[in-house]
Write a structure and sequence with these properties.
The protein is mostly helical. It has 2 helices and 2 strands. The protein has a two-stranded antiparallel sheet.
Length: 88
């Protein structure tokens, strides 16, 4: 998956979480709920593939990102105020 290129630990964490969700619902027999789970999986995959920005740690302690227009979701990030988007 291109979202975690060069970050095998994060790739495997996401993979484990996805597998956990599938196993939790393996006995579901309600067709509507099955379709909801499939839709959730497809939406999750699409989000991970198209909306995750991977930063690379630089020698000066900052991260370098290659953001593209498709990474913005309705509310574009103001790169001059990036701290407002980061959780403590």
């Amino acid at each position: 998956m291109k979202s975690f290129d060069g970050d095998p630990e994060m790739f495997h964490r996401v993979r484990i979480e996805c597998r956990k969700r599938i196993v939790e619902n393996k006995n579901e027999s309600d067709i509507v709920k099955i379709h909801e789970h499939i839709f959730f999986g497809e939406e999750s995959r699409d989000f991970l593939e198209n909306n995750i920005i991977q930063g690379k740690l630089q020698n000066n302690g900052n991260y370098r990102f290659k953001a593209k227009p498709e990474h913005a979701i309705q509310d574009p990030i103001n790169i001059n105020n990036i701290e407002a988007y980061m959780e403590d």
